[in-house]
Amino acid sequence: MEIAHPYLLFLGDVPDSLAAKTAIGIVDWRKDWCLGQVRLEGCAADTGLPDMGIAEGAAAGARTMIVGAVNAGGRLPEHWIESIVAALNAGMNVASGLHVRLGSIPAIREAAERNGRALHDVRHNSETFETGKGTKRSGKRILTVGTDCSVGKKYTALAMDKALNERGFSSSFCATGQTGVFISGRGLALDAVVADFIAGAAEWLSPATEDTHWQVIEGQGSLYHPSFAGVSLGLLHGSQPDAFIVCHEPTRTTMRGVQTPLPGIQQVIDLTIQCGQLTNPDIQCIGVSVNTAALSEDDAWKYLAKIGEEFGLPATDPVRFGIEAMVDKIVAEYGAP
């Protein structure tokens, strides 16, 4: 799947920034591919890009409108269809990370056919996966895991891959969600894979490679989240990580979208090791990544120092303060490149 850029990012009328995390993630990592954003009345998210109408975006040279908003269940709100049809009529392709296939909606399918435009459903693919085998394979792997969903697993994995490459390691980022696929240009939306094949899909995504090569795998959900734990467990078993990083947001008390209490960091470390040892007996935690966006800089440093001391692990906010300490941990545990 090759998605033409520049992008025009459609945010719809989502209620907060987390619901626009696809668009925001693209801007954070591929801003040079983006021209502007389209927001409907009532939208509470903002990528910082110029607001544009659809016709204005097309005139500016946008080749694809990305549906950069998400919701529980990956549905397409009916009142967004008009904007998608308008983008197709304006000569743009449309790409979406929602679960619903764009072409399954008659008005969108007809507009795409009439205008000769492409519809990209990033969450869907034509690959056929086997069930997971759990067989040991060559190469090294890092997986990001979470105390909750939407806590920074993708950003941590991207930052870790970038830092490893800058330090001379051979490293690659493995996208497991729609935003990661938009950013990296390849990958797999794991939550759209039939449950029996999640572990096998994770094995396919992070295949055997050179012994010195690191695959940094984007985590999904949380082993403790009642909605998404099934995907998280299949990804853990299939990715067979040697190392994992726990990602955490310190101001939450319940998990996003449910009333389940947020688990502690130690709980996540213990359960990840217990479950992960099924396919990699040597799995270990190499650090804690904390999303400190809701904290002042002084409070963030104090919190990270407390976490680092409590768990005896590097603790950082990779977006705010960098992730070098975790690369140092890789060097200490596995050797220099």
Automatic annotation (TrEMBL):
Domain D-glutamate N-acetyltransferase-like C-terminal: 131-327
Name of the featured protein: Uncharacterized protein
Domain of life from the UniProt record: Bacteria
Domain D-glutamate N-acetyltransferase-like N-terminal: 40-124
SUPFAM superfamilies found in the cross-reference section: P-loop containing nucleoside triphosphate hydrolases
Leader sequence residues: none
PANTHER family referenced in this protein's UniProt entry, alphabetically: DUF1611 DOMAIN-CONTAINING PROTEIN, GLL3100 PROTEIN
Native organism: Roseibium aquae
One Pfam family linked to the record: DUF1611
